[in-house]
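lol ok so funny story. i was supposed to be doing the assay writeup but got distracted and ended up predicting the structure for this chain instead. priorities right. anyway since i did it might as well share w the group, maybe its usefull for someone
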Amino acid sequence: MRTEDVLAAIATGLWRWDNASGIVSLDAEAARLLGLPAEPVRLTEAAVRSRFHPVDWNEIDGVVNLAVAEGTLAEARLRIMDEHGRVIRTVRSRSKPLIEGNDYQLVGTLQEVAEQLPGTAARTPVTGDWRRSREAFLLDAGRALAEARSTAEVLRVAASLSMPGFSPDGLAVFGVAGDRLTIIGHHGHREGDEGPFSSMSLDTDYPAAEVVRTGRAIYLPTPEEYLRRFPTTWPLAQRFGRRSWAFVPLVVAGRTMGAWMAAFKHPVAFTPDERSVLTTVARMLAQALARAGVAESERELSLGLQRTMMPVLGPGIPGIQVAARYVPTGGGLQVGGDWYDMIRLPGASSRADGHGPGRIALVIGDVQGHDVRAAGLMGQLRIALRAYASEGHRPDAVLSRASRFLYGITDGDDGDGNGSGPRFATCLYLEVDLETGTVDIARAGHPDPAVRTNDGTVLLRPTAGGLPLGIDPDTDYPTTRLTLDPGETLMICTDGLLETGGHDLDSGWERVRKLLESHDGDDLERLADALVEAVHGPGSHHTTGPLADRREDDIAVLLLSLRPAGAVQEAPRRTLMTIAQAEPERIAEAREQVRQLLHDWSDEGQLDAAVLMVSEMVTNVLVHTDGDALLVAEVACGEKARRLRVEVSDGSDELPHKRHPGEMASSGRGLVLMEMLADVWGVDPRGDGKAIWFELNEPDSEDGCCR
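and the output, tada:
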């Protein structure tokens, strides 16, 4: 009697699946079991697939892949469908892969089995509740591992996995370092238990080492099997009292990067379905570990770049306090184009004896972009600025040279689709004389600096400026001078501090202003932390992970305060600015400066009067002279209340004259207004021009002088 006849008698058919050609050969019994005429037939893979329940086809596809990878039998239960989509029978498939190079053939049997009785589904290897439980488990495990951001998080997730029906009580993840097997992490063991396994040669007769060498899983269902296959290292495993072990390769992109051990205190048979679960978890675990490794490498590179590119501020400079923060945007290397710097300048101080504390330069800037190229250009530009400053150039010359430098290294790059191409950078360069407090500022498209006075008033100091660096190599950068009194705090920042969280520059500045006003200037480190936390939350100046990914832009902020020996003397609240002939639009900035200076003035009418008189005084200079207007305004303490003094000077010797304009006249009312609105006013001739001034005395208040 033929073998086929014997198998047909017990309702068992033979089949062969050629993976290379996609052809499936069925004998007569196998064809009958699939609902086809009972005769030998050759079908395409698609034709055979149409006879199986879709869910079961996906199951057998995974089982076959597992059997090919491990060289074991593929076994599954399959529901057969008719042309109308009805289930007509259930068959058991058992097959053996015959591997030929990169291709394989499956040779196996199909056998009809009885329908499942109610309540037995949980014990079936493929169908029923066990499958649904397994699918839910794998979905949850995949989601949790995908969200893990570090190796430690991946290991915590792996330790918390509860596999349906056969949860291990001991886990270990092995890695490879050269020719040594190492333990990355473990669970279910006491501290120190990993000692004998922590650095093991890959040639050792140990299951994890063999898995790494061969790339094939090892399943040890009994202690006897462990002893038989690995007698040398069995004593190391025996003391843990486990009954079954699975060692599965961790494979990423075809490379075995380690092994995962799952150990059980109860016997496990390691059926194809159980091996499939373990293999799937190992695959997800390997990918999660690879992602975490890349992320940790990027973070380490990011921190290294930050340490290299961001200076240590203030060493060896007495009499000043400096604080700075850099917070990169989320994603990638977390290194962008923002930077700050502090540079010791050559030459002596402005004191006659030349022995003052000297001069420093403060620099803050923002190269366009948040990528590695932006970080590279930032490093080059920072070095160039340091070189120009160290040569002794004035602020305007430093920025002019830096603009030509950046234009030269980016102009020839027309872009290649990888985010390259011409780039520009905004920058603020300040030269500070630490003896006199004089600050000379050149600005290239960057936000203006702010000053917190000793009484808590915060003033945004408008400065003249030019185009961002790198746009036009011949751009000029005018210099603006202001004076920083002892105890006052100077703040410079990039636009990321202002525009994050849906704010524009104006609303972002109001947020920062309130924070500066609410903090005293004694502890700049605490103030720097508070500025960053107001935007991103506590601890965000060193955060990585999900919080970092929500950042919208890089942030750099730099704070400086002059700290002379002894107590800080009470100084008038003061602002100073120059309005050039070619910049009449800055008259509005002058009015705003006076409003900021008088933010807590008790008489709103006097405030409006002061703003009106300042507008008239500055306009008079721009209209009737050929020079610039220098505005100086200060609030000082009088005997009973505060006094505002505003002075506008120019280089013309021609003194203003009081006129009597008619009703239709368009000018000539400036001095008349001052006579009506000011408590005191006057015009002072000077050797190089004149100054017109006025004073307002704040009405007496219960709290006396300065607030």
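The first strand starts at residue 12 and ends at 18. The CA atoms of residues 329 and 552 lie 6 Å apart.
back to the writeup now i swear
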